[in-house]
DNA sequence: TATGAATGAGGTTTCATTCAT
DNA sequence: CATGAATGAAACCTCATTCAT
């Protein structure tokens, strides 16, 4: 009795990923055993292994969904017309991050583990690298739009600025997850302060 | 060989930590077995366990050393008189980070794993939280000095700005470790661009 | 082979317990390693741990079976109608003990280890205490029946007598196991001699 | 620096045995590590091993002391002139047992472990067997004295009776240690009840 | 004589994965 | 398609004992 509906397959996959996410958020990748996932999902070992051929594959699928979920949002925000100001863009994205941390899936809690895994699992590292690069490119393009709109100097190194902006997000994630004493609003204020600063070394050029 | 000198004990400890660091950098915390550490250190199981009573304790010692090493440097830079400009400060710290990544110990490669571990190991989490908070406080004080020196507006939210500045470092670490296409110099240029930007939303006040 | 019959599961359990009993009788609880049990049972580590979640649980199951096996027999003998004479009751129970010592399982050889374990393992101690108390109660009831039948004085402290009678069994077990120079028949003769004695101190009352 | 006084040696031995006894009473033979004994005695590994060449030897020395301590007392009581009545003899010995259980050394708490060990350690088994036999012989002689004094029938099987009497002690020990709801006085009453019983099968002869 | 650092085999238990049913 | 019993390598850690100092 093969011929199972596409929809059924997708439901099963989701069921597994939801269970795995719950477990991973609760205990971490390594402390979560496949048995935990079987129990949480209410599925048998064999069933789970029909949909994912290894634990790593489950982790990758989850990471992929998470990155995807954020990427779509980032793309939307950064592509808005007219180009949104720096502090608005960052503020909205960090808000999104908090909701991805506290919401049901709590997906964002997996981020540090995914970074760590990417360092030691080549295949996963390639994947994360690729997505991260693409993701960051959105910021570069955003800065180019700022430049074109005259909101940053015409000779701005847009790539460098994109990297710096993108680089603020992991720092927010870590402070939010580990210390927990930061809000999107405060982070936004901090960014405004930096952008208002004149505390730069004399132009080296 | 009983009645051993204090120095001997310290050398043993270092020998273990060096071996462990090498293993952890190579394979990650979880993929490194205690056997790996015994082999790398050339010591027996019993000997290693005389100095550290668990694998976690080794990880903590390593993290502690690493955080300490960076903290001292950060403290030095941020406390300089006269207060160094933003881009200089960040530039020098990211340089330090690259040397802690590529140097012998390559300690910084452990950072993402430590963040991940801190999320799921309460004791370690407490420790990291505490150190991270103290570390970040240095940035807050630094911004206050900038303010006192008139290099940022007098009404700057120094705490928020400190958090934002501190928050740039994890982003640099991740890009440097995972993607590898960033340099302290480029990051510094990016920061200069942000600080020169006028792309802020109208003051909400 | 999933979806396995109840009977199959029971067979596995028995297979493990039989192997464990053999090992324990041969080498004792502590000298028997789990590897020994895997080898003796012909099962893998994982399989054994599916049925018992620790070595202690195996020991407890074995003790439980043994105590149960003896208790049923004791209950039968002591409840017989008409109430059996002292020497018959003790004689038959010690016979039972010898067959539980020499028979296939040789379960009774585990008794001293179980007593020792009960002293240092709280949970196991509670269990043994409870069973031993229930077991001993059968003797108390038996003496009450002797009293009601006029075979011991009407003012007999039946509880004390029950404890004394029950207390003869460990002494038989130890002499049988450790020295080996005693038989149920001889023990019975000894008991008859005590019961025929007039060597008591003057009634303290 | 050789030529250490005999007294010094003896003091060291005692120091070790006291520490070991404390540990064994607290945690049992197997759960007590040599490290525990080093710590409890305040001596170094090397020092302890100078006096006892193995853990087993310490256990044996302790068992030897304990058996000896009880044996001397038993010999005294059973050899009294005139020959003491049954219930007095047993009552006084069980009292002694309680004081050896609750006293400082709590030596008697080691008995079940010693019995268990004797079953699986041939050398120790031989030793215990020998001592137990000698010990029991005191009871046989005691019954012979009862017979000679006309306090038991002239045709009494004194050996059998001695074994039965001796056999009551382990049962007292176990009830006292494991259940804890028995006193020498109650045990004595129970014995009196048995000796007053007429509940014997018709003489098989 | 005394020290205590060192040994390293061996302890129990877990886990991702497979495959007969 | 689904089940879940079974595998067995490998994980972390302890321990009785030794011997250079």
Mean pLDDT level of chain A: 92
Helix/strand-derived category of chain A reads mainly alpha
Q: CATH superfamily of the largest domain in chain A, called what?
A: Tetracycline Repressor, domain 2
The biggest sheet of chain A, with number of strands, parallel, antiparallel or mixed sense and barrel status, is: none
Percent in strands of chain A: under 5%
CATH names the topology of the largest domain in chain A as Tetracycline Repressor, domain 2
**How much helical structure, as a percent, in the residues of chain A?**
over 70%
> What's the CATH architecture of the largest domain in chain A?
Orthogonal Bundle
Between the first and last Cα atoms of chain A, what is the distance in angstroms? 73 Å
The string of secondary-structure elements of chain A, in order, is: HHHHHHHHHH
Shape assignment of chain A: elongated
Q: How many structural units, i.e. domains of chain A?
A: 2
Q: How many β-strand stretches of chain A?
A: 0
pLDDT under 50 segments of chain A (min length 5)?
none
CATH class of the largest domain in chain A: Mainly Alpha
Radius of gyration of chain A: 20 Å
Oligomer state equals homotetramer
State the largest interface.
A-B, 70 and 69 residues
Count every helix of chain A, treating DSSP H or I runs of 4 or more residues as helices.
Answer: 10
Main attributes?
205 residues, Tetracycline Repressor, domain 2, Arc Repressor Mutant, subunit A, 0% strand, homotetramer, 2 domains, mainly alpha, DNA-binding
């Amino acid at each position: 009795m093969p011929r199972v509906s596409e929809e059924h397959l997708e439901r099963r996959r989701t069921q597994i990923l939801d269970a795995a996410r719950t477990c991973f958020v609760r205990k971490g990748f390594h402390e979560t055993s496949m048995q935990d996932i079987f129990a949480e999902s209410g599925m048998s070992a064999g069933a789970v292994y029909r949909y994912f051929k290894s634990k790593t594959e489950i982790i990758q699928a989850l990471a992929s969904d998470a990155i995807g979920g954020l990427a779509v949002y980032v793309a939307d925000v950064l592509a808005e017309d007219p180009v949104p100001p720096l502090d608005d863009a960052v503020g909205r994205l960090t808000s999104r991050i908090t909701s991805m941390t506290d919401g049901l899936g709590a997906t964002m809690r997996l981020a540090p583990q995914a970074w760590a895994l990417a360092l030691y699992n080549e295949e996963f590292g390639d994947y994360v690298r690729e997505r991260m690069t693409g993701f960051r490119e959105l910021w570069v393009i955003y800065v180019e739009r700022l430049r074109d709109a005259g909101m940053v100097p015409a000779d701005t190194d847009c790539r460098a600025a994109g990297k710096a902006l993108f680089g603020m997000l992991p720092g927010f994630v870590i402070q939010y997850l580990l210390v927990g004493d930061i809000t999107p609003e405060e982070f936004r204020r901090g960014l405004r302060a930096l952008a208002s600063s004149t505390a730069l070394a004399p132009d080296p050029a």
